[in-house]
Fold:
Amino acid sequence: MEYEAVIGLEVHVQIKAESKIFTRCKAGFGFEPNTLVDPVVMGLPGALPVMNKKALDGVIKAGLALNCTIPDVCKWDRKNYFYPDSPNNYQITQYDQPICEGGLVEIELSGDSRAAMGEHKKIQLTRIHLENDVGKLNHFTEDSLVDYNRAGTSLMEIVTEPDMHSGDEAFAFLTAVRQIMVYCGISDCDMEKGQMRADANISVRPVGQKELGSKIELKNLNSITGVKNGIEYEIKRQTRELKKGNTITQATWRWDADQGRTESMREKEDAHDYRYLPDPDLMPVRIDDEWKNWIRAEIPELPFDKQRRFIEAYDLPYTITSVLVPDRELSEYFEAAAKRSPKMAQAIGNYVTNDVLRELSETGQSLAECKVTAEHLLSLVNAVEKGTITKQIGKDVFLEMFKSGELADAVIERKGLKPNFDEDQVKVWCQEAIDENPRPVDDFKAGNEKALNALLGPVMKKSRGKANPQIVNQLLRELIS
Amino acid sequence: MSEELYYKSASELSGLLEKGEVSSLELTRSIIGRTKAVEDRVAAFNSYDEADALAQAEASDQRRSTGNISGPLDGIPVGIKDILAVKDQPLTCSSKMLENFISPYDATCIQKLKQSGAVLWGRLNMDEFAMGSSTENSATHPTSNPWNLNCVPGGSSGGSAAAVAAGEAVLTLGSDTGGSIRQPASHCGVVGLKPTYGRVSRFGLAAFASSLDQVGPMARSVEDASLLLQAISGHDLRDSTSFRKEVPDFSKSLESLKGKKWKLGLPKEYFEKASDSAAMEPVQKAIDFYRELGCEIKEVSLPHTEYAVATYYIIATAEASSNLARYDGIRYTHRAANFDPKDSVDVYNQSRAEGFGEEVKRRIILGTYVLSSGYYDAYYLKAQKARTLIRQDFEKAYEEVDALLTPTSPFPAFEKGAKMEDPLSMYLSDIYTISANLAGIPGLSLPCGYSNGMPVGLQILGKPFQEDEMLAIGQAFESAHDFKNQHPEL
Amino acid sequence: MSDTEKIDIEYVAKLARIALSEEEKAKFSEQLGSILGYIEKLEELNTEGVEPTAHPHPMENVWQEDVVSSELSVEAALQNAPKQRQNMVVVPKVVE
Structure:
């Protein structure tokens, strides 16, 4: 029997903000333990929550970017459970009236090769709601230590429908969500800093069966690759069990990335009786069209739309767009130059995705620090296009621009890279080469195209690399015939 | 008048301080002396810090000498119910759970009080976490009613009421979730005011039931209560339920509303059952007084009154079960010495078993139950809907009248121990006060007579955010009687 | 609400994280039974079409702008902690 997997994800994303979700205490990562706290974060007697407008703006933006419906009114509920990382022993969340409902996320699966665009699909969302993050437990052999710095950070939970079927799809989903969040400035989604976390609900059923199988909730998926590997492992495990005639019992398992396997977690005894109640300390939120509209205006062109446009408008190959587009800053950097000279877009794209990225990575600079601007890129591609310099010399000119911040023309001038001869001189060098190398000439005449290269070399040498290879090629052909 | 300083009113003391006839230090010493003299019998305080109070008094006198006083309360000792956060002072809520807790921050009303120059004086006893009507549910000790030491002072703000009645503070702050200011005020023969929900910030008030709790003043006169209300009222950015509404100048409105002929309603449901109760006679006389004053007295109906107690106990306990979950033995509360060191759940179970008293446990259990899986709609949601109907009853009544007159409590202060074993009858005694919390309206209790030597309170229920009218109605009665100058013999 | 006299005290106490003694269990069961019996009064009330009241004076959109203005020092935050180490609160080992 053939089996298929059904996967739903619960993705937690921290919203970037100066202060926490329900108090104006500083939010952040990497601070000394319990230094980002106040009476509200610590749940002291008498402390009361007050919403952070920025968190609301962030999740509305996310909802609009992910094609959700934003109901007119959402409200706050308390989810009651005891845990040492939760100072109030309840989490403030949204139970029956979340801020975003539904939604669709476009994803791209990996293509047949790096150069080929993969299949695009749309994954259905159930909802997005807002809640407070909890503190962090540090485990030791004898006891655990609690740090409440993270407690109270603005957190949105994106819940998908059981709409994915492989680790690849889950991977693609998280990649797409992360790109959109970063594009929109909602979150940096750094999984190492816990800014994005995912749990997966995985079940397996015989192909053709309508009902879902019993699901395993998989936790501890600490990286996007971890999500993919964990899910793939779990699908194989469940399929194996079912094939053996065993049944799957609904439970929570964890992914052990070091061991590369999943394992069962101890069950909370009385889980799932959360005694939700509307939080009496907070007022509902009404979101009108005006609010939605100004947030919508802040949403940039999203990655897949930009990719389609780049391919269309600039005739870029997929490979270049797949490097440019995931990085909003890089794609804008590219376009600042490309839109001024659309015909040169491909050449610009090549410089950006090869030379710029390579030099940034070697020097450890950020794009913002890069001395090569759109102006520089244009001066360079124009010089090559006009034949002022060769592509090969262009590479050297780029390095000089990157170091000094001069425009290409200035580099060419300063370094004397501009040819100081005319076409007649090149013709003379070509004739000399033909005379000095009779053998390749004969071979060429006999129909060996490649033999021409043996003449090209000497001419380039005579010109000190400055002659335009296309012109040399053409002149050689003319002279030989 | 040769009355002792500690029994003078805040308004009179304010004048004496201004004229330099008395200093805050003298006044504070008088209060401290009085407290030391009677506290062995009244036991209103959980703790007090003499040196701290004297230092505040000195600072007030200093301000006055340079002409920088902050207002009418500058230099006047105000006692604080032990449920409000005062920076670097204990905050016990009369619970073993918080017996060693020192607050690292100020409640908003405390901050305001400090800005008004008042001398913050002591931590007043209460029913544990404000759950109770007798102050017998205190983990520290019971407080006595200054009028009869065998009787309870009422609750939960029993310490605040008793301290004012016994001259251990000029004014005190209490908190009222279902009558916890008004009922003890009634039992101790003082004035107690529960403001409109949202008038006074709840930030720094240890929550019992968030949608019902309000901080309010207790005093020996209506004018004094208005002075303290003035100091603590106003919108607070740190309390999302605090109302953005201008606070009237209560002293001015007491003047301007003087002599007004009010339309006053008598809720028939309140009087039907209460006609034979001991507390009724003085209340009836008070009603007659208003009639003779030329006010229009009218019967009104609050048809959903009979559902108020049930509604209240569902909402209050449900919210409390969640609010009190933070007291868990982990971050700042009592932690049981003996728990299974391998199990954090056991820290909760044992610490909460040891840290909470019986009434608190009972209410947490009830609140947990009504919220547990499968019961939400039947209890909590149903109660929220009943609450709407109760609120609408008042809205309708206020279309006809300016305020309502009712008894504060069905009976005067009872003897200690009399009701401890019967929680339901204790809950039912809140019948006249809880509706104001459900509807979010203001309520005032002021002394209107005695029954067998024990004080009886008249309750005035006002329109939302019209404490000024309610105060003026109360003062009309007070100024024609001498109850504010009658003190218990101690 | 018909079986409210029989409140599952063990289950509720476990949810509430309070270790009750056998005496307390017996006492509370009985007292809560009578309180719940009284509360059942609400059943007779017709609340069809009635909106629930969450706040006596409802408001909407009560928030603050995202500006840091509140803090507490580590010392103050942990001054009441029953047990602390390395500026963190010590709890028994939590099994995940």
